[in-house]
Design a protein that fits this description.
The complex is a heterodimer of chains A (264) and B (91). Chain A is of the alpha/beta class and 264 residues long. Chain A has one domain (3-260): Protocatechuate 4,5-dioxygenase, Chain B, CATH 3.40.830.10. In chain A, the strands form two sheets. Chain A has an eight-stranded mixed beta sheet, sandwiched between helices. Chain A has helices at residues 24-44, 91-103, 118-127, 150-165, 193-204, 216-221, 227-237, and strands at residues 3-9, 17-19, 48-53, 68-71, 75-80, 83-88, 109-111, 135-140, 171-176, 242-249, 254-260. The longest helix of chain A is centred in the N-terminal third of the chain and has 21 residues, at 24-44. In chain A, helix 2 crosses helix 4 and helix 4 (150-165) packs across helix 7. The longest helix of chain B has 15 residues, at 69-83. Chain B contains six helices and one strand, in the order H-H-H-H-H-H-E. Chain B has one domain (11-83). Chain B is mostly helical and 91 residues long. Helix content of chain B is 63%, strand content 3%. The chains are: A alpha/beta (264), B mainly alpha (91).
Amino acid sequence: MPVVGAFALPHTPQLLVRPATEDRELVLRVHAAYAVVKERLAAARPDVLCVVGGDHVEGFFLDAVPALAVFVGRSAAGEFGRYRYAFDVHEPLARAIAEQGIEAGFDLTYSQDVRLDYAFYVPLHFTMPEPRIPIVPLYVNVYLPPQPTPRRCYAWGQALRRILDARPERVALIASGGLSHFPGTDRYASPDYDFDRALLASLAEGRGAETARLTGEELDKAGNVELRTWITLLGAVGAARAEVLCYEPSWHHGNAVVAWAVGA
Amino acid sequence: MDEAHYFFPPAAAYPLNRFLFALKSDTTARERYVADPEGAMREAGLDVEARAALAVADRDRLVALGAHPYLVFMAQVRLSMARDPGTFEYF
């Protein structure tokens, strides 16, 4: 079954829990773009949402740092302040991705018990179709060096697409992350919005494959370590042109919501 | 990549990063710290430099000691949410 939708979404927690430092109108504009994605997801009628997210040292700490991982449990749960989330996981698809991904040469980690990170549940809070559908959390290490290379992420996305195309389920893909931001560093208030704008322009022309040639150093310098999740999705969508539903740079974060027309 | 914003976490900083991870992700550990910061830090075996830097949330100092910048950031966010929940808007 072809992939029936592909989206890249921000997940910064200030979109869920807004401190006084954040521009309320900007936050609401990002919510409006999330709402468009929610409508499109409902229209695409996926059976499963595959969410490619970068763990914020929440599910995985320094006791084990997988480069690429698949959650193959029954249910994925996490919490953030007063919020409690639990999502059913599509076990047959998750297991097929783990098995066939390894068969294809990607030494994936799998877990049946990882606490879900906000990279997954913030976008799902705003875009999960009703009634809810199961998810498959796919992990890319973005914050704990050495991270997987952009080239490797892109190749994994290509392999993932081949796996999904041969499956019976209708799958929508979500990449969660970005764009430019530097949490915890002295660059926090000065993200690289020029990088973001050039990137979005190239994606709108269907030039996503170029991201595979970025280096880890370039991503770190641009505040885009999380772009690895997008690059994974770009491997899966190929030359499809991106539609930028919003780009809202705040004082510290480039919030981008992007859609790709793919499949059925 | 020596000057990467997100650098390889040095092994010597593992106790500090472990503590920041707990502040960020473990409600019980966070409550314990809020109630008695010094006691919680001593119990976790943090050395005097780390305790002094964390007590005043000195980000630069913590990062210089090998703390992961993201962990420093989100530990502070979660502490702030725990201390002043009324200052946030919840969607």
